[in-house]
Write a structure and sequence with these properties.
Blueprint: H1 3-37, H2 41-51, E1 57-59, H3 60-67, H4 71-83, E2 87-92, E3 95-103, H5 105-130, H6 133-148
Antiparallel strand pairs: 1-3, 2-3
């Protein structure tokens, strides 16, 4: 294997490690959030993303990027959350084609109830991952990544 092939293998192994860590964390979050708040990880992500916006709303395409979903999947997700009374859609005043998605009082309340579960589960999943030699280096790097952003 040449130098170039070694570099590809290193990146590939890094990607597999990242995917393994993500899968471990997401599975734990999914179980905890479903049990405690009847929310999926992606539903929690939507509520959390909206809560971090000035005015508590986002355009649909921004929400799609925040959740890493397609436009159609985002629409289906927003429909489900709207049916549950957790968010609402409003027309953009300066662009009649634009639609904002906004948290409702019920959405804010559920997010506030779910956030401690999310945070505790994330902390526990990272601690468990820290004990897996293949994942420990990546877990160690997370605080440095945040500091550099």
């Amino acid at each position: 294997m040449g130098i170039k092939d070694d570099a590809v293998e290193v990146r590939t192994q890094g990607w597999r490690t990242l995917a393994a860590l993500h899968g471990l964390i997401e599975a734990e979050l999914e179980r905890s959030l479903q049990a405690e708040a009847q929310l999926s990880v992606v539903e929690y992500t939507v509520l959390d993303a909206l809560s971090r916006q000035d005015g508590w709303h986002m355009r649909m395409q921004q929400l799609a990027r925040a959740t890493a979903l397609s436009a159609s999947a985002t629409t289906r997700l927003v429909n489900r959350l709207e049916d549950r009374g957790l968010l609402t859609r409003i027309l953009c005043a300066d662009d009649r084609r634009g639609i904002y998605t906004e948290l409702t009082a019920s959405g804010i309340k559920l997010l506030e109830q779910a956030r401690p579960t999310h945070n505790a589960t994330l902390e526990r999943a990272l601690a468990e991952a820290q004990e897996i030699p293949e994942l420990a280096t990546l877990v160690d790097a997370l605080p440095r990544l945040h500091a550099e952003v």
